[in-house]
Amino acid sequence: MRRLLVSLIAAMLLGAASIWVMQSDSGYILLSFNNTTVEMTLWVGILFYLAVTALGAWLLLLFKWLGNAGGLRQWWALRRSKQHGNKTAQGLILFADHDWKRASEMLLSGAGRSSMPDVNLLFAARAAAEDNQIDQARILLQRLKVSHPKAKLLADKILAEILILDEQLEEAVQLLQPIAARKPGDRGVLRLLSDTYYLMGDWPSLQKLLHDLNYYKAINPSNMQALEQDVYANLLSDFTPNTEFTLQEKKDQVGDLWELIPKRLRKDAELICGYFDILQQVDDANRVQLLMVNTINKRWHPELVERFGQLKTSAPEKQLLAAERWLLDHPEDAVLLVALGSICCQLRFWGKARDYFSVALRLQPNAATYLRLADVFAEMGDQTESNLMYRQGLRFSVGVEAS
């Protein structure tokens, strides 16, 4: 309060002094230009000068503001930005509409002034690839990596995806493997790498990748389980024993492959069938017999039952006992009856084989079963019935009802 009072008194004294000076001697200023003269008092001249100076400074600041952030430059920049933003939006709409050529052109033309040029270049490259302009897509992605180094990983993943779509799988693998080594937890890279291995049919490499796919949850659980089953089924179906190995070494080779499969998958019927097939290649059917019995006891698998009847083991009597126990719960299962007939043929129990095959034919006529029964009658010395079964099997196979 005291400071304000002192300021007011000082201002009043200064004003009074100024009036006294102006009244005591006003002075004058004379300006002459050609025939024109202007005369004014000194104090008016000083006030005029101050007013002109203030107006000039204000105009200078105004033009500076208009030319910089607050005016024309900002307006022009906003206008250009809006134009390029519109191009980006139009390009993305064309991309969504699968108009690849126009989308690529529009996105590329808007990239220079876009607020998100990396997005423009990425989608322009994708659109070019969809338009089969693979070289153009490569150029755009390389441009993206140079102008936006932080987007290098994303650009490489997009390029890998483009290569996969273009079926350049070897190049895609060469691009993805170093990335996966540097960033093992990148789920996008893991998915792309698994897709590439799958398309190449490189099941050993894909099997090695399964752990990372599962650990980093790169694939949802249901798809992951289906992928695992597919991988191990193909590993089993593609298996060929090493011809330079002894028989025991070949059996060990098969055993190692089966041990490679997770325990939770070893009860899968398709995998057991694949295991059955490769055990047949190395004459080791006894190993799979117990596994098949335990699996079928827990869950009925018609395909496994059929394969069980085809097993050539050292103890077919045990096979017969196991299959006849299943007959108590499945008395009218044609597949089981044919399997029983096949086992009886191994044991040369021709009468039982005839009975099983005959009931199976009554339940589910089948050309192959007719032929099996014909062979049984031939072994029993009944050539008439054997010929009849052959004829009926032939008529059935060509779609003519047996008489």
UniProtKB/TrEMBL annotation:
It holds the Pfam family HemY_N. Signal peptide: none annotated. It is a multi-pass membrane protein. It comes from SAR92 bacterium BACL26 MAG-121220-bin70. This is HemY N-terminal domain-containing protein. It is found in: Cell inner membrane. Involved in a late step of protoheme IX synthesis. Keywords: Cell inner membrane, Cell membrane, Membrane, Porphyrin biosynthesis, Transmembrane, Transmembrane helix. GO terms for cellular component: plasma membrane. SUPFAM superfamilies: TPR-like. One of its GO terms (biological process) is heme metabolic process. Residues 27-130 form the HemY N-terminal domain. Pathway: Porphyrin-containing compound metabolism; protoheme biosynthesis. The chain crosses the membrane at residues 42-63.
